[in-house]
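Fold these two proteins, one after the other.
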Amino acid sequence: PSMADRNLTTKLQDALNLVGVRTLDHIVVGQEDCVSLAELGYL
């Protein structure tokens, strides 16, 4: 995932935390594959 993907994930987590929603994962989908940020340790 790009730095922009990781930054977006952080912003989403912060916003969701404000309303009491826990982020379990964020999947980044590319042209040929997808990546779980939780599996990579970013969450």
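Now the second one:
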Amino acid sequence: MKGRAWVFLFFVILGAFLSGQALAVDRSKIVIVATPEDPATLDPAVAWEPKAQLVIRNCYNTLVVMDGESAKDVKGELAERWEVKDEGKTYIFYLVKGVKFHDGTELTAEDVKYSIERTIGVDKGPGSQLKEVIDGIEVLDKYTVKFTLKHATPWFLTLLAQSGASIVNSKLVKSHATEKDPWALDWLHDKVAGSGPYKLERWVHEQQIVLVKNPDYFRGWKDNQFEMAIIRTVKEPSERRLLLEKGDVDIAFRISEDDLLKIKDQKGISVLTQPSLTIFYIGFNVKKGPLQDVRVRKALAYAFDYDAFVNDAMRGFVKRLRGPVPSSLWNYDESYPHYKRDIEKAKKLLAEAGYPNGGFTLDFIVETG
């Protein structure tokens, strides 16, 4: 539903929906989104990237969902309620009854067990965190499932709220499994086997993904919610901006900093930003040349102009981090110390390392595009 959708990275929303397109659904009931590229996969057991989340979060359900920014802000979705026993090592979930997958099959505890075991078994990314914590999963009855953990894990519910813990239609997925592909990765790569508010109607690769309303969605529908979502692949940031300005798209992701500054004050357009999982850093090759010396590395860290990078190079659209963990993750530590620019200290360290006047060059490798 609208409350679950379109929540990742920089995005821009057009205030008024424009009519005039020859579509079967009323244009006011359609949201058109421009993204820079296709998802790599739609399989929730594999996908991490925000592009895939647009589909997965709207086509699948999880046992629980986050209802705030704290790890404690969790509410049931497929789970009507749950119990925690054995000092946090056992979780028993009681499912909402009557939930239907998109093909009409009823969602049961067997689907929950299979889905989480599949994510762990695939072990392509999302499964690694679940694998570290879950010792076993047991179906107690049609609508009750028990998780036994290897150790008490206070953030276990937040793991179950991630897209990697989406519940798939086990019968449908198993029907496409083969000896070489026991988890049906090839089939689920560009298919959906979920119970969420939207169904996958079609995916024309490198062009668009079309989602349509699931009329049997167990949470029901309200009149002001979209009946169709069209996710268009538009590679150039400037083209995404122009489509937005013309009203050909309603939401544009990954608008460049320059384009954001151009449109942020335009009437009818709202610029919304959220912390992403993207981090910028300079990595050192510490096995050759001057960078083998920790004093040289520290000198570079003291010499770097962090404020100029944040405010000038990135136009103030980034936040300086305190370590390698993105600030949007629950375990980010705001109290962790970081370097402050100190040219004199940098010079002193270089002198101690045998480079009082510099005198060496470094190759700087960057990705383009």
